[in-house]
Amino acid sequence: DIQMTQSPSSLSASIGDSVTITCRASQTITSYLNWYQQRPGKAPNLLIYAASNLHDGVPSRFSGSGSGTHFTLTISSLRPEDFATYYCQQSFTTPLSFGQGTKVEVQ
Amino acid sequence: QVTLKESGPVLVKPTETLTLTCTVSGFSLSNTKMGVSWIRQPPGKALEWLARVFSNDEESYTTYLKTRLTISKDTSKSQVVLTMTDMDPLDTATYYCARTFYYGAGSHGPSNLDYWGQGALVTVSS
Questions:
Q1: Dihedral class, residue B91 (left if φ above 0, else alpha if ψ from -120 to 50, else beta)
Q2: d(C-alpha A64, C-alpha A74), whole Å
Q3: Exposure letters B94-114 (e unless 16+ CB within 10 A, then b)
Q4: Which of B33, B10, B30 has its CA nearest to residue B105?
Q5: Which residues of B touch A55 (CB under 8 A)?
Q6: Nearest Cβ partner of A97 from B49, B110, B114?
Q7: For B112, which of A91, A94, A98 is closest by C-beta distance?
Q8: Residue of A46, A50, A95 lying closest to B110 (CB–CB)
Q9: Does A89 touch chain B (CB under 8 A)?
Q10: How does DSSP assign B56-94, residue by residue?
Q11: Beta strands A102-106 and A53-54: pairing type?
Q12: How large is the average pLDDT for residues B99-109?
């Protein structure tokens, strides 16, 4: 099974900051990497698929990059609604798997 | 408009079998580009993918729960059912169903979870 590891587990930032979250896979997953945002008490929302493609309606301040085993999610110019938990997920093979999450908190 | 909604018991006792139903609308379970996955999230913890059923009834399961899980679908009712046997307090979680969309050229390959239900909290306690 493929293990997904995110770093950091949490980070503090201010409105307007740019933040980067890293996700590493235990083996190559080419570009089959998705990112989700989860606000407290809500279901996750798809942000990015295939490592760098924005899902419909997702603001352009979100961007993703990477391939193989190393991926990043960058949020430029943080807005209040961006304080949430972010998860990466691989779809290279089943069983599908998620990272442990990165909580973006207000500094 | 694509929607998914989970339904099932709020409380189950240890050793009982949990049956959850996901009722979908806005897409067909026979669409070859789509499937439905179940994902759970214990309170305060991370997301965990459990199982997926594809349009041709092909099933996939997470490795360590494979012996306890069964996923199936009824296309005519637009429903996907997940059963989990021998429930334990550690299975207390919010259970989500999500559409699995295969965005690649074929009917398998890379996918994403593009629409989610609101989630159903299941507590396991005697």
A1: alpha
A2: 6
A3: bbbbbbbbbbeeeeeebbbbb
A4: B33
A5: 112, 114
A6: B49
A7: A91
A8: A50
A9: yes
A10: T--EEE-GGGTTTEEEEEEGGGTEEEEEE-S--GGG-EE
A11: unpaired
A12: 81
pLDDT of residue B106: 65
Nearest-neighbour CA in chain B from A28: distance (Å): 14
CA B55 to chain centre: 14
Q: What is the mean pLDDT of each run of 10 residues along chain A (107 residues)?
A: 98 97 97 97 98 97 98 96 97 96 95
Could you tell me if A47 and A36 are in contact, meaning their C-beta atoms sit under 8 angstroms apart? Answer: yes
Within 8 A of A89 by CB-CB distance, chain B residues are 47, 49, 113
pLDDT in tens, B47-91: 999 999 999 899 999 999 999 999 999 999 999 999 999 999 999
Mutation pick from B112, B115, B118, B121 vs chain A, by most beta carbons of A within 10 Å, is B112
More confident residue, A59 or B108: A59
